[in-house]
Amino acid sequence: MSNLTDISYVKSVLSKHGFTFSKALGQNFLINPSVCPKMAELCGASDSVGVIEVGPGAGVLTNELAKVSHKVAAIELDKRLLPVLSETLSEHDNIKIINGDVMKLDLRQIIEEEFGGGEVVVCANLPYYITSPVIMRILEERLPIQSLTVMVQKEAADRICAKPGTRESGAISAAVHFYSEPEMLFKVSKGSFMPAPKVDSAVIKLHIRKQPPVDISNEKMFFKVVRAAFSQRRKTLANSLSSGLSMPKQEVTALLEKAGIRTNARAEEMTMEDFARLANAKL
Prior knowledge:
The chain is of the alpha/beta class. 39% of the residues lie in helices and 18% in strands. The chain has two domains: 202 residues, Rossmann fold, CATH 3.40.50; 64 residues, Helicase, Ruva Protein, domain 3 (Orthogonal Bundle), CATH 1.10.8.100. The chain contains twelve helices and nine strands. Helix 6 packs parallel to helix 8, helix 9 packs across helix 12 and helix 10 crosses helix 11.
């Protein structure tokens, strides 16, 4: 049995297949033996719940997911890792490696083909450079999944989980809270990876909502308002909206008053209910 948290073993397999780490792809492989079993346990996988993994790397997390789930479909962009994964995961017969870009693949089709309408969760150690795009693509497409359990940069985790209306919140906070209920699970030190990144990470879980937490008339307008509000964080909401929505300041002021929001408020003070009222007032 291969020990994927043994640095010397992983290095030998990577070297055997001529693999070198790519900074452009944000490749940092987990080597902390306690992290992946914990992620696999908390992500909701089981003998009746399948898993989609993004970026399996050397297969450390994949190995743990395969132990608890009836099937794992792992999406890997880097072709150089395919022979590595073939070796490190050879003892499992419930893993499907899909070579492709998660931002371009038809994820809905993959879920249907690999899991046939069964329950599915997403679990991944996401490269820092593509964290938000991957999360938002999965959420916006309203894929038939129950949750996303992902490891991301600690700073990104704080922003994603921040409740709208608090100082740490941003546009990503509002978007994530619209589609899901985020939960901070645990922190992961930078020494848990090979090579070690410069910052710590954290594992978060996004529980998919069946319905949005607020009543809005137009989803596109809601997100347009959110993006505009946070486009210039240091300015007042009136100034940010005027610039982001290409509206005269006077019209923005009237819009804020119509929605019952202070004209000198700032974006981070806005709750989900505030954004909903503002978006509905814009229509």
